[in-house]
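Hi V.,

You were right to ask for the full record rather than a summary. Here it is.
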Amino acid sequence: MINVIELDQEKRDFWDREVSKFESVHPLNAFAWGKVRAIDGWRPSYFLAKKENAVTGAVMVLTKQIAFTGFTIMYAPRGPLFNLGDRETLQALLGRVWIEAKKSRAIFLRIDPNFLETALTNCDDPFLHEGFINLKARWAFWSSPRDVYRIDLTKFDTETDLFRSIEQKGRTSVRRAWKQGVVIKSATEEQDLLKFYSIFKKFTVEKGFMSRGYEYQRALWHEFISKGNGKLFLAVHDGKIVGGAIYLIFALKCLAMHIAVPYGYHHLRANDALTWESIRWAKERGCTWFSFRGVGTTPTQERFKRKFGPEIVSLVGYYDLPFHPFLYGLFSFAEFEILPRMWSTLMKARRIIESGKK
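Predicted structure:
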């Protein structure tokens, strides 16, 4: 019989140790990620499935209140973790989620497991069997990307081999940054994070995408970076910070989070130097892969990432488990029909507001 238990802060190390054993583990399965997302109003719950003394599965469930309603939504980033053929564990985990959903009046649960898309082509889909709806979308505003760029670091014996795997244009850009005096250093104190955030916020306005507040990046600093499970790299030129990037490491997997080099410094190729240094660092730490997260939402982003020789990894995508079908239908319509049409207007309004603050 499988027993599902809930873990708290005191069992943080136990959680991290046990989930790290799963082949599909991802940095967003770390206990710390739930603490980071709490900054945005997501309440994390950590559930482990055990059979006798062995952990057979796990799921971190984030629950968020929908403003001005008595309802919530639930999200399990890159989860649940279990062996695909183990339906008993999946059913046990979902049984506990149903209980929590009733308590919090959740409309639905979304999952985006770290399983390859091809993993479910030759077997019955366990999620459909449990009542999930498989979404056709390749991207969603508030969930992790379905198609990602990853570098398999196990293919390279040396740092030299790894550097040679980068496209010629990419290697030239990295060398150009070095030649122009760009130096990449590791942030050592929270004051460095403040400087990076100032750059990052300006960068997001230029690029036209949303950014969270400083408290979110501060949580990344305290939950990952300060504990040795992440890094904030800073690009310095003539003594001035001209860009930076944040990366997370968990279970020997490295995940790119934020990179920012404002337009005024693009000629220095600091973004290329930052990316190479992060890949090199991940290899040095013994990571098996380095992930850019998504492949890029624009052709420019896609070309930039492709220079570094990643492979496109397509995951099984998004699955929703409705608890209140009618309300779920309304939420889904707003997410995939209304919000995309409003997005450009929201970004224009943000640029105007930010410009007015200067």
